[in-house]
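Action item from last meeting closed. Structure (57 res):
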């Protein structure tokens, strides 16, 4: 039984190594392909804009 565990360990270590390399490659590609933020488009309303309308707060 121990012999089976010993032969499977290197294979699983190799799989972890390969998967780690793939994840790192995907993260590098994601960083390279990020689009710059558009300064004219906002994803949220600044809180200071809401103070001009007290009935909304």
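Sequence:
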């Amino acid at each position: 039984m121990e012999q089976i565990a010993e032969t499977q360990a290197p294979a699983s270590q190799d799989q972890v190594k390969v998967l780690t390399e793939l994840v790192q490659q995907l993260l590098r590609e994601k960083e390279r392909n990020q689009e710059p933020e558009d300064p004219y488009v906002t994803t949220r309303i600044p809180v200071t804009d809401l103070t001009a309308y007290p009935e909304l707060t």
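Note appended to the action item: The mean pLDDT is 75.
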